[in-house]
Structure formats: structure tokens, C-alpha cells
Amino acid sequence: MAPKVFIDGEAGTTGLQIRQRLLGRTDLELISIDPARRKEALARKDIINAADVVILCLPDDAAREAVSLAETSSVRIIDASTAYRTAEGWAYGFAEMAKEQRTKIAGARFVSNPGCYPTGFVALVRPLVQAGLVPRDWPVSVNAVSGYSGGGRKMIAEFEDEQAGDFTDVPYRIYGLTLAHKHVPEMKVHVGLDHPPIFAPSVGRYAQGMIVEVPLPLYALPGKPKLADLQAALADAYHGEPFVEVATAEEAAATQTLAPEGLNGTNRMRLHVFGSDKLGQARLVALLDNLGKGASGAAVQNLNIMLGLNEAAGLDAPFAWNAAA
Fold first, then answer.
1. pLDDT grade, residue 109 (50/70/90)?
2. How far apart are CA 92 and CA 89, in angstroms?
3. In angstroms, what CA-CA distances link 18 with 137, 291, 314, 321?
4. d(CA 159, CA 170)
């Protein structure tokens, strides 16, 4: 019998794309709640405990409530909110983060899906910290831009509804100005930094796609590494990974510009080491889809790992943002 999967919050942006990726698969069974009863605690409790895996696409407080409803010990949960990303007892669902991470995810009852920005940041910086190229106490900063689809229904309306107000004509805007963005704790914890990074996010006037960038003054780092040292550490960390690729030094040198929509609709992430050895400066850049590897794609990848299925199932076809959904 195929395992039963329930998406709690399937009408939201991430939930819709997860459902799209799972529809038509014969190695699992999607179950849904009666839309008229989706806010009834008893109905949600019944369907949560009838599932083998529940994927939560809910705000933090609603996700915590859903977890409390899972009384059957066999029910496993993937949470796409920020509620449990640094919580004890939860496996962090970035399979490529460490050699043992897939084993942790496969054996976990509770898996927390990473945030979109942290996926790029952790991918870029953790291998360099592990290799001793960047000290744990280094004052790291990270700049990033995402499509507006990652901001939920309110932000989508602000950018797509001509009657929504002040944001219909701006090319992008910055936010998180108090430096207290909810993604910062997982960035610090899962890279292994002593201090939270300075995170400067922005949102652009396009629906989908993301660039995450970490500048490094190589001349100031203890070992004064070269660009080749950074590229080699990243290439070694992700060697053989199907969804994370590292640009070669030649590819990086030949790149003149990079658009955030380059990997839209995929579960892939591409890492780059740009910069100048002469100046002793580097720009680490991750390119990914904020709704793909940054959300729905990662959730499906984690689901496949947890159930012992083909890890790439449901992840080989591109998915585009549907503004009408």
C-alpha cells in the first residue's frame, strides 16, 4: 500500500507547488481534507493521524498547533515554517548540508524544511567554515534578492494588484531593517557561526527566483585564501550531488552577469565563486528558485528521502509560478 501524504495548507503558494509535484505519482497517495472542514480542529486531527507523512505549509503558530495534533507516533512531519528550524529533535531538511544529513532525514520523525535564503547561505558558507577557510567568529554578511512569491499572499497582492498601493511601480525594495529577520537563527546555527550574520534581504518586481550573495575580504581572513581555495572547498562538499552544482573557476571567470530567475521551476542550486585574487576579494553567489530548492522542491526531496523513494521523483519537471493559483 502506498504511503499516505497530507499537505496541511495546500492552498498556499508552497503547498500548491508541492501538490503539483506529487500529483500523478503512483508511489504515494495524496489525501485531502474537505475544504469546508479545513479549519475544524477535529477534522484536521483525524486526517493528520491518518497520514504517514504530513507536510505543513502554515504560519509558525498554526504549524505548532498541527504538530500537537499528531498523536499517532507513526505520523511523520515535514514543516515548511520557521517554527522548528533550530529545534531539538528536528532534523534540518537540507540533505546536501553534510555527508550524514540524508541519514538523519531518512530516520527522523520530524523534519524542518530550510528557509529559501538560508539554503543559499548555508550552502555557500558552511563548507568554508568546515574547511577552516572562514573562522567561526568571522563577521559574515549576506545580501540577497528574492521574487515576491516568497512573501506570501499579502506581498503577492502588493506587487500584482494594480490597486494594492505603493509597490506597483518599484523595481525592488529592501526590508528586514532591524536585522531581526526570522531566517537569521538557522543561518547561524547550521553554519556553526559564533555570531549571527548581518542579513540584508530585498524583494524584486518579479515573481520567482533568488540570488544569495556573501562578500569576503580574502586579504583579511587568517589564511588569506585564494579564489581557487574557496571553489575547491565547495566543489568537494557537493561532489556528486544531483541538485547542487558548483561552477568551475573557468565558468565563473566567463560569467559577466547573473539573473535571479536562471533556475526557476527546478530543484537545483548553483554556487559561484567570483572575485579577484589581485584585490583579495571574493563574492560567493548562490542561484536558486525560492519556490523550488528554497521551498516546495526541498519538501518533496525530503519526503522522498523519508519514505525511501527515488530522491528525484517529482523533481525532474520544471514548475512555473502561477499567479492565478
1. very high
2. 10
3. 37, 10, 9, 12
4. 9
The full length of the chain comes to 325
Q: Which amino acid is at 17?
A: Q
Instruction: Give φ, ψ of 322 to 5 degrees.
Output: -115, 100
Sketch out the chain's domains with CATH numbers: 4-113+292-307 (3.40.50.720), 116-288 (3.30.360.10)
Q: Could you please report the per-residue DSSP string of 234-298?
A: HHHHTTT-SSEEE--HHHHHH-----TTTTTTSS-EEEEEEEETTTTEEEEEEEE-TTIIIIIHH
Q: Please give the Cα distance from 25 to 6 (Å, whole number).
A: 14
Q: Say if residues 21 and 296 touch (Cβ distance below 8 Å).
A: yes
What nine digits make up the cell of 215? 562578500
CA distance linking residue 127 with residue 133, whole number of Å: 9
pTM of the model: 0.93
Q: Assess whether 57 carries a catalytic annotation.
A: no
Burial of residue 225, with CB atoms counted within 10 A of its CB: 0-12 exposed, 13-18 middle, 19 or more buried: buried
Gap between the Cα atoms of 294 and 118, Å rounded: 8
Of the candidates 96, 94, 132, 143, the residue with the CA atom closest to the CA atom of residue 233: 132
Q: Across the chain, what does the average pLDDT equal?
A: 92
Q: Which of 22, 108, 116, 203 is catalytic?
A: 116
Q: Are 252 and 270 in contact (CB under 8 A)?
A: no
